[in-house]
Amino acid sequence: MKIINLFIISMFCWCFSLNAGNNLEIFPNVPGCSIKATVTNVSCVINNEASNDGSITLEITGNTGTLTYKWTTNNGNGLVDGQKDQTGLSAGTYTFCIYDNGVQVHKESKTVTEPENFTIETEITDNICYNTEEGSIKITASGCAPPYNYSIDGGQTFFSSHLFENLKKGTYVVLVKDAKGCEISKTVKIGGGEYLSIYHPESMTVENCLTQKAIDAKFEEWLKEFHFIGGTNPKEEGLDVTAPTICGGKTTVNYIVTDDCGARRECNAIFTVPEKTALNFINVAQNQHITCNEDIDIELQVWLDSNANAIADSECPITWTNNFTECEWVTICGNTKFIEVTFTASNGCDRINTAAIFTIEDNEAPVFVEELPQDITVACNAIPEAVTLTANDSCSGNAEVSFDETTTNNDCGISTITRTWTAKDCSNNQTVHTQTITIEDNEAPVFVEELPQDITVACNAIPEALTLTVNDNCSGNAEVSFDETTTNNDCGSSTITRTWTAKDCSNNQTVHTQTVTVEDNEAPVFVGELPQDITVACNAIPEAATLTANDSCSGNAEVSFDETNTNNDCGISTITRTWTAKDCSNNQTVHTQTITIEDNEAPILASSYEKDITITCGDIPAAPALMFDDGCNTNLNVTFEELSNFTSEGEDYDIIRTWNVTDNCENEAMFTQNIHIRPQNITPIEPVELKLCIDDATFDLFELFPNNYTKEGTWEVASGNPSLMDNFFDPSKTAIGNYEISFLPSNNCIPPLIIKIIVHDDCVVLPCNSTNELVISKAITPNGDPYNEYFTVTGIEECGFTMTLQVFNRWGAEVFQSDNYQNNWNGYATSGIGGSSQIPAGTYFYILNILESGYDPIKGYIYVGTSSK
Fold this sequence. Notes:
This protein is mostly beta strands. The strands form 19 sheets. The protein has a six-stranded mixed sheet, with no helix packed on it. Strands 41-43-44-45-46-42 form a six-stranded mixed sheet, with no helix packed on it. Strands 23, 25, 26, 27 and 28 form a five-stranded mixed sheet that branches. Strand 39 (492-503) and strand 40 form a beta hairpin.
């Protein structure tokens, strides 16, 4: 509605001033003439564009003649000169003159004003995610005539709030209307996250026999075709893969794109490299042999270039390589050598190897250089040295000459020597020469060492028999035989005769004899450390040692032992031990040990007992039967005494038990046991009450026991005649009434437990006391069909409860509320924005209260499937 400023002037054809800005000129009076000018200001200025709808209207009465009008302006627009009333005026000052029959009777100026420029600013918040309603428009208006009303649907609906929220992506016509009805509009767009789409190439199989570089290049180009469009801050995964190898295989790309709004897209494609057929040899590499005098370099190169005549088969091109190097030759001798070469065939994927040997051979025997020795006959001491022969080889130069000598013996020694020289090159080509030497023997052997002479010695000084050797001019070392005879007396050896005989194979011999006379005059000697004199306690007497002795003549001598004891009043006081070693010549050695025995240790306890006992309730234990031990005496004197400071029942007191033990040597020991009696009042336990219905199952009374309370004891019925089997109480076999049962622990230090049981028949199960029967809708689809049309709560219809229901959207805003819910909500909001109150499809949170039921509030989620977006 436009607000019109009226400036009304009444005049009676004489001039007077009304207010500043309006000028009035005085002219001659026209009796009865009245003029009133009404000004309407410009209503709106929008974005600096005025509406130019101002006007000035004239109301004239009492005129006598014909009126004419003249209008002028210095700064306005829209005048139509000569016209009485002016409309469509801009802001400015306008002057009009009125003529009556051609005579100017009135002149006046009027001002048309315009309001402050009307503008609006908008602050847009876009939706971050696709297909969400989180956008907003904030409108700020100024100018014209506040207050303002706001619309974002082109003026169909106006609101007083300048903030519009929960808007989805789209174009909105913002329109603001001021108090005078002026309207300004602006078209704005609320953006939204783009729909996330992903794209992938078709699965690809490349052609066969490509190189790995070509496969990798095709794979990289293929990967580039995986891409996405849209989404909110999307992230890719699954492209961190490698191409199959040249040998063939498949790479599956599982392309996954997720964005910050939870959108996830997934696709896959397969890149395949055909598997190559197996690479096989048709012919393997062949060995080659040549001789020293052939052209080695040419023959070798032809062999290498032909891959040693190896042939391989593959559907893809084959590349041959080998590992030949001059460093790998194995030299046999001279120019005789060989090399093993491995030839490798590859089709880019598989590699197979075959090996062959190239050999340079020598097949000519070597020739001796010197004059060759001939057959001869010589004496044993005239055998000539074997000569050293050398040989030449046509291929390897100097050949190796080996020498071998074999001897043929007869009964007298060497009779024939056969010497063989063999010249052999590295290829086992050889030349052999043999010489035979015949030998004669006629001289006896001769002892080499100084010969042993006759001697007289003690038993322990008999020298070892010497080992004598001889030389023989023919056979070298002749055989030496040794013989020894002994003449014995009662105590051992007395005379030893030793004979050495040297004889060669021709029975030529030499003999030597030695006589050794033996005497025994030394006593035997004990073996090991001898026991010394000691002083010990009765229980520490050591066992007698077993001694042995050696005799220089007869070996082990006989050792005798003797032991004597000397006693006093306490028992044994001294032990004398004697060992005597004697040989067959009555030479002897004696050793004596004296052991002094002392008893200075008191008897000890041989059994265990509790030294300190504290008793709060129960019986006092009997005195233990203690056992004692003494290292020297078996007869011990034991006295026992028990003392008590008992005064009266219920008071603390102590018992002291003492054992005194004495041996024959007056060594004494005392043992004590202290018993502390501390009577303790037993605090009774509060009775336990139990109510059971006659229809209840058998009840285990142990379940009523306090923690750590004993289960060792007996049950006692104090009142009534219940059905009680040990700790099991059966209410179904017990009459209605009150019962008292006591449990009496076996340990009288534990107070009894009293259980009071009431058996009743109030066993009716009330309805509506559990939520187990409740059935609450999980989803509704209000579309007019008979299925899932309303949010319902069933199972308590007969209980008469009142229900309250609240439903909230995901931002926590309440969209529905009822204080007396009747299973009648079908997805419509109790308040909202826009023309429809049906809520958008989605998941909503509800709180259900069942009043005066004793149930806790029930909270959950309900999915609403509506057609509203």
